[in-house]
From TrEMBL, chains A, B:
<dbReference type="Pfam" id="PF04193">
    <property type="entry name" value="PQ-loop"/>
</dbReference>
<feature type="transmembrane region" description="Helical">
    <location>
        <begin position="6"/>
        <end position="24"/>
    </location>
</feature>
<keyword id="KW-0812">Transmembrane</keyword>
<protein>
    <recommendedName>
        <fullName>SemiSWEET transporter</fullName>
    </recommendedName>
</protein>
<feature type="transmembrane region" description="Helical">
    <location>
        <begin position="61"/>
        <end position="78"/>
    </location>
</feature>
<dbReference type="InterPro" id="IPR047662">
    <property type="entry name" value="SemiSWEET"/>
</dbReference>
<feature type="transmembrane region" description="Helical">
    <location>
        <begin position="36"/>
        <end position="55"/>
    </location>
</feature>
<dbReference type="GO" id="GO:0016020">
    <property type="term" value="C:membrane"/>
</dbReference>
<keyword id="KW-0472">Membrane</keyword>
<dbReference type="GO" id="GO:0051119">
    <property type="term" value="F:sugar transmembrane transporter activity"/>
</dbReference>
<dbReference type="InterPro" id="IPR006603">
    <property type="entry name" value="PQ-loop_rpt"/>
</dbReference>
<keyword id="KW-1133">Transmembrane helix</keyword>
Length: 88, 88
């Protein structure tokens, strides 16, 4: 197994690991266990990774991190909506 | 801002974004909103990133992903414990 293949595999798995979280969060609307600061920091970090990928012109870094953003931004949205509803 | 600096910043923020999640999960023992499949897949992916870092001898990739493992393995442990307790 080449290092590159392992890198793509790692990227795929970490990127799509967010999908079951998005589906569960969307279906059950229970994000109480998810920490808002984690979600915000994680998305800031992933955004910086995407910009970094653009700067060094690395397609895998751009693609994997853009998909991660697409998966986790809705999760953040659901979390914010839950917290607003709790505050009434 | 150099690309390298941005990469380290992105790595730091995404790595340590897990800390507030670990603290919240540990204190409140409420991981109901966290999806077990996400946690398992995420840790598999991060483990592969760490091995990838070793293969290409990239210290930042090794360090950041090892710290991420140290943060998220206890969260997985808390989640498994919670699910076992629910099953009684």
């Amino acid at each position: 197994m080449s290092a590159d293949f392992l890198g793509y595999l790692a990227g795929m798995i970490t990127t799509f690991s967010g999908l079951p979280q998005l589906l569960t969060s969307y279906r059950r609307r229970n994000l109480s266990g998810l920490d808002l600061r984690f979600l915000v920091l994680f998305l800031v970090g992933i955004s910086l990774w995407t910009i970094y990928g653009i700067l060094i012109d690395s397609k895998p870094i751009i693609i994997f991190n853009s998909i991660t953003l697409l998966i986790w931004i809705p999760i953040l949205g659901l979390k914010i909506r839950e917290q607003r509803a709790e505050r009434g």
